[in-house]
Design a protein that fits this description.
The protein is mainly alpha-helical. It contains nine helices and two strands; from the N terminus they run H-H-H-H-H-H-H-E-E-H-H. Helices cover 49% and strands 4% of the residues. Pfam families: DUF3425.
Length: 171
Amino acid sequence: MPISSDHLIPLVQFNAFRATLTNLTLLDVAHLIPRECNIADALRNTPLFNLPSVLPPSLAPTALQQFVPHDTWIDLLPDATMRDNAIRTMDTFCAEDICGDMLGNPRQGRNTIELTGVLIWGNPWDVSGWEMTDGFLKKWGFLLKGCWEAMAATNYWRARRGDEPLVFETS
């Protein structure tokens, strides 16, 4: 029996949250999250994706990450170019906005995930399992410039559902 649409949005949000916790654990950076986020309870009570025994190359820090101070959430992205784009532009947007949008901004209503979310279809450290929604691309497309794998993955998952491919700005 297919899952009802009433359950799909919270499930997608939960999966994105679980992916975030998994990458936090892989990178061993959960201690850097502010206490007010109450991440400790979530880490204890949320089943993670199966963890690889070594850090996946997709999460290895770039030179920019190593030398430019930045928020921890950037390190969780599985695409090095996207991480570098986020670092280069981090003074132009609010981290809370993008983090909320990546999780489908659950505080703003049940249909928001369709507008701004990121869907995780595979291992969270592998960009081939990530799909950016149309709304996410419209708002945060500047972070995806040069992210060919993320673009291909997004359109792969859309094609599996019979949806039209999204057009990414490349310059």
